[in-house]
Amino acid sequence: MKKRTITTHYECYDSVEELPENDRAVLLLAKKSLENSYSPYSQFKVGAAVLLRNGELLGGSNYENASYPLCICAEQTVLTTAANLYPGVAPLMIAVAIRNSNQVIDKPGLPCGACRQVICETEMKNNQQMRVILQGETGPIFVFENGLDLLPLAFDRTFL
Ligand code: THU
User: Fold this and answer.
1) How far is residue 81's CA from residue 61's CA, in Å, rounded to a whole number?
2) pLDDT-derived band of residue 136, with 50, 70 and 90 as boundaries?
3) Which of 34, 42, 88, 156 has the fewest CB atoms lying closer than 10 Å?
């Protein structure tokens, strides 16, 4: 038996001003997009935004349902919107912003497992890594270079 270790990497920025220009623009759109969130059940607004290879910026938000399992995450909203509006155009980065009406969250909103899987699928489909930029309502910003850094040992099409 051999023990193996997985390490992952991310950058941590103290403020939006410190971010590279493109990262900042995408994060600001994610923050704006969370205003469109339909989240009457959780009161947890999530905004996501992507920058596509053709320069387009698109935003999306979470969309809840009284039948709870039908809630759609913001990351999935924006990635499927991008794939339909601009087929074959790869997203270069995705940003995610959050707001909780009950408390100020001062740590980055980490994408759920399903969204990490969708980010990895999008990367593989387009043969293009995606920067992932995350911030809470305040506090530090985490930047992952790609989806696999958020989901090591991901399931993918090579098994099918
Ligand atoms: N949510 C997202 O939009 N993205 C995630 O990565 C995690 C969770 C949404 C789903 C639901 O509307 C609310 O946040 C609470 O789980």
Assistant:
1) 11
2) very high
3) 88
**Hey, which of 46, 64, 78, 117 would you mutate to test ligand 1's pocket, going by the most ligand atoms within 8 Å of its Cβ?**
46
Mutate to test the pocket of ligand 1, among 68, 71, 133 (most ligand atoms within 8 A of CB): 71
CA 36 to chain centre: 16
Q: Which domain holds residue 38?
A: 10-19+26-54+94-151
126 domain-assigned: yes
- Collapsing DSSP to helix, strand or coil, 74 comes out as helix
Q: Total domain count for the chain?
A: 1
Asked if residue 130 has its Cβ within 6 Å of ligand 1, the reply is: no
pLDDT tens track for 6-54: 999 999 999 999 999 999 999 999 999 999 999 999 999 999 999 999 9
Active site residue 75: yes
The answer to whether position 118 is within a domain reads yes
Non-local CB neighbours of 114 within 8 Å, separated by 6+ positions: 73, 76
When pLDDT is cut at 50, 70 and 90, the band that residue 119 belongs to is very high
Confirm whether 112 is domain-assigned: yes
